[in-house]
């Protein structure tokens, strides 16, 4: 039996029940695919349900304030996905009358939609014979065919796309694409897959050559950068100060407390000399304390943030100018913030 047919039969017997698998509505499929980028299904499912509840249609998502979109996205990371999601919803609603493009080529023109997402939507919603290639597909094809080309290189991306196209079941692209991704997620797992129960075991090159643990090959990531954040929670009994991050960056549009960023951990005395500290507090009396002595380490793809939260109790907040703004303590949880800040807010306020 052919590779693709085996996968489809396996999928029909083993697939997980997911709400986006019960529809071919392009809005629902697009939403699920954007949420599941860089995200496990178990983590992404509650977000998908929340978004569908808050924004049943693309028109609802397009009409929502960006802050509401970012707040619902909070905790998923890679916030550019949420901003692109919102921008594309506006484009589809306002420029396309709510109708999503119906081909791989036209879907690629949407903001935040790359090769994988366009292929997934085009095949699942419109039965276009285009292959998907995500992390699961790389792993299945690399092991099954014994391909050691690094998957995070230009050559690897091109080679695996060609292999995926050659193996695609062109008469059942929707089912096949979902099958190979599900197979990679449940059966051909990254660590310790159960090859004794695999429907592809008789033809798997990696299994025959005992290279399952070596494939796929991925070149080492760039060096991790360390950054040191000292947040100032300046507050009275009723209010505190937040600022919105502007400019390009992973947290663009999100809120945080006033920040002192340094090249290394700093002492109390060094913190008091920081320009942000002196500008916001001036000569007024305050009580300064460190929330926790040990740094909170927040790991991102290419950087680790070593973070401390300093609580600064004052009688009254100073006059503020952009980007700082006064916020009532009871309203702090309403603002979209990075998960690093969100965890602190949940524990502290």
Walk me through the structure:
Its cofactor is [4Fe-4S] cluster. Its EC number is 3.2.2.31. This is Adenine DNA glycosylase. By secondary structure, this protein is of the alpha+beta class. The chain folds into two domains: 3-214, Hypothetical protein, domain 2 (Endonuclease III, domain 1, Orthogonal Bundle); 225-348, Nucleoside Triphosphate Pyrophosphohydrolase, CATH 3.90.79.10. Helix content is 42%, strand content 14%. The protein has 15 helices and eight strands. The strands form two sheets. Strands 1, 4, 5, 6 and 7 form a five-stranded mixed sheet that branches. Strands 3-2-8 form a three-stranded antiparallel sheet, with no helix packed on it. A hairpin with a 3-residue loop joins strand 6 and strand 7. Helix 1 (3-14) packs across helix 11, helix 2 packs across helix 3 (41-54) and helix 8 (115-126) packs across helix 11. The longest helix is centred in the N-terminal third of the chain and has 16 residues, at 80-95. The model has no long low-confidence stretch (mean pLDDT 96).
Comma- or semicolon-separated keywords:
single chain, 349 residues, alpha+beta, Endonuclease III, domain 1, Nucleoside Triphosphate Pyrophosphohydrolase, three-stranded antiparallel β-sheet, 15 helices, iron-sulfur, DNA_glycosylase, hydrolase, iron, glycosidase
What separation lies between the terminal Cα atoms?
Answer: 60 Å
Query: Which regions contain 5 or more consecutive residues with pLDDT less than 50?
Result: none
Globular, elongated, flat, extended or rod-shaped: what is the shape?
A: elongated
The CATH C-level class name of the largest domain? Mainly Alpha
Using the CA coordinates, give the radius of gyration.
Answer: 24 Å
Largest sheet data: 5 strands, mixed
**Helix/strand order, N-terminal first:** HHHHHHHHHHHHEEEEHHEEEEH
Number of helices: 15
Helix content: 40-55%
GO molecular function: purine-specific mismatch base pair DNA N-glycosylase activity
Cofactor: [4Fe-4S] cluster
Enzyme class: hydrolase
Function: Adenine glycosylase active on G-A mispairs. MutY also corrects error-prone DNA synthesis past GO lesions which are due to the oxidatively damaged form of guanine: 7,8-dihydro-8-oxoguanine (8-oxo-dGTP).
């Amino acid at each position: 039996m052919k590779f693709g047919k085996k996968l489809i039969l396996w999928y029909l017997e083993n697939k997980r029940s997911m709400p986006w698998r019960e529809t071919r509505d392009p809005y629902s499929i697009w939403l699920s695919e954007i949420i599941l980028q860089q995200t496990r299904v178990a983590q992404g499912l509650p977000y998908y349900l929340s978004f569908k509840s808050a924004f049943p249609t693309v028109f609802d998502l397009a009409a929502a304030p960006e802050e509401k979109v970012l707040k619902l996205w909070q905790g998923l990371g890679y916030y550019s996905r949420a901003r692109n999601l919102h921008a594309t919803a506006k484009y589809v609603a306002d420029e396309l009358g709510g109708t999503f493009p119906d081909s791989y080529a036209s879907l690629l023109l949407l903001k935040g939609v790359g090769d994988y997402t366009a292929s997934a939507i085009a095949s699942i919603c419109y039965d276009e014979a285009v292959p998907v290639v995500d992390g699961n597909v790389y792993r299945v094809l690399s092991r099954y065919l014994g391909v050691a080309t690094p998957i995070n290189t230009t050559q690897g991306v091109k080679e695996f796309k060609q292999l995926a196209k050659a193996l695609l079941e062109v008469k059942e692209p929707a089912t096949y694409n979902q099958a190979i991704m599900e197979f990679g997620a449940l059966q051909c797992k990254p660590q310790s897959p159960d090859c004794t129960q695999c429907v592809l075991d008789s033809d798997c090159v990696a299994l025959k050559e005992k290279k399952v643990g070596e494939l796929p090959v991925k070149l080492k990531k760039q060096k991790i950068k360390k950054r040191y954040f000292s947040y100032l929670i300046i507050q009275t009994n009723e209010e505190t100060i937040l600022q919105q991050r502007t400019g390009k960056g992973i947290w663009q549009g999100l809120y945080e407390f006033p920040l002192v960023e340094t090249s290394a951990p700093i002492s109390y005395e060094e913190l008091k000399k920081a320009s942000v500290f002196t500008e916001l507090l001036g000569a007024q009396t305050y009580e300064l304390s460190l929330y926790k002595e040990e740094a909170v380490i927040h790991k991102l793809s290419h950087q680790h943030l070593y973070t401390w939260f300093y609580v600064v109790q004052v009688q009254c907040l100073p006059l503020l100018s952009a980007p700082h703004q006064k916020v009532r303590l009871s309203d702090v949880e309403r603002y979209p913030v990075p998960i690093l800040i969100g965890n602190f807010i949940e524990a502290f306020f």
